[in-house]
Each structure stands twice: as structure tokens, then as C-alpha cells.
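Risk register update: the risk of archive-format incompatibility is retired. Evidence:
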Amino acid sequence: MRDINGLTVAITGASAGIGAATARAVIAEGASAVLGARRVDRLEELAAELGPNVAVVEMDVREPADARRLVDEAYSRFGRLDALVANAGIGAYGGIMDLTDEKLKTMMDTNVAGTVWPIRAAVPGFVEQGAGDIVIVASVAGIRGNGDEAVYAATKFAQVGLAGGLDRELRESGVRVSTICPGGTATEFAMGAGRTPDMPGLADMMSAENVAEAVVTVLKQPTSMRTLIWSMRSIQEDD
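Archived output:
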């Protein structure tokens, strides 16, 4: 396994859940982190916890200019960017006709466009330096659709397809593209939109830290190998 000490990792959706856990995990490995999210107050609290090797960017992943600011901050603050973790995403449970137009549009824009824009911002630097990691946090829903989350699953299938295409596009430039596809994870995901803090089964789900460990494992792989799709779920979770 390679040492990621001294590398710089940009993370979207870093204010909570898997994003925040990934920030803690890469800092523990000696990397620097550039954290992006809309809830800047939470980002600043996390930065205060993690120490000086953290930069904070208030951003909306749906905005290309904000994605460029995230990447620019990495080079401005730390002089380099070695990995992008495209983690920002939202979800809601409900049939195709159960959710409002606005909710579905926000989900599609956040999960799909909000993955594309940060990647587009990071790719030129990765290609120029001949190395870089793009890690997309998708979902098992992007491998098999589930009832009551068809549109969410469509956005996650789009992320998996994006990663597959980018692997073919960027591999010869030394850029690795990986997709992490977690099953049920006990985070704020869909809380208040079909999920409640006391819902049955929440305690049996994976933790955000479980997924963050997978992200770090991908980043620490020797540069001579790459992981395309890593699907994972709790031992208690049914198919």
C-alpha cells in the first residue's frame, strides 16, 4: 500500500456523514483536505477539530464555478491536488409520482451534475501531472434499482456509468477512477424524506466510517493498480 501522507484530497459533501468521515480518515493518514459543502458552519467546526491541514470552501456542487473554486483552493493552500472524492449527494424514498418536481430536479442536479462539475475542475491538473485519483461515492442502487427510489437509483447508475467511461478516457494519463457503492449507511441520508432516526434497521447499517475506510484503501493502493467498482453492504442487510 502506498503512503498518502503529504497528499491533498478534495472532498465534496464534506459537512456530514461519509464526507466528514472521509475527511477525518485522510487527515489521520497525514494527508491535507479541502472540504466543500453548502453548510459552511459545519465545515468550519470540522476544520477546527482536524487541525491546520484543512481548508474549507462553501460551495454548491451544482455550480461549475464553485467546483473550480474547490480545486483552486487546493492548489492555492497546499500547492497540489492528488485526489478528488465526489461524495455530495441527496436521496429520498418514494415512487416516481410521490416526490415533487422540485425534489426530483434537485436530486438529479445534485447527484449527476454535482459529480460532473468537480471532476471537470480537477481533471486538467491530474492530466498535467500524470497522476490523480477520482473516487465517486455512488450506491448499490447504482448497480441494481430498488423500489421506491427509482430516480435516486437512476442518478447512481449515471455515476457508475460516468466512472466507467472516465476510466477508459483517463487511465492512460495516469488518472484512476473508482466507484464506491455502499449499501445502507447510518447517516443523515434521506432523513426526514423516508428515513427517521428511530427507524428499524438503522442500527444494523454500515457506519460512515466503514465507507470512509474503503475510500482510503482505494487511495492507498499502489499506483500500478486500480479499483473500478467496490460494492459493500452490512452483513445484516438483505439483497
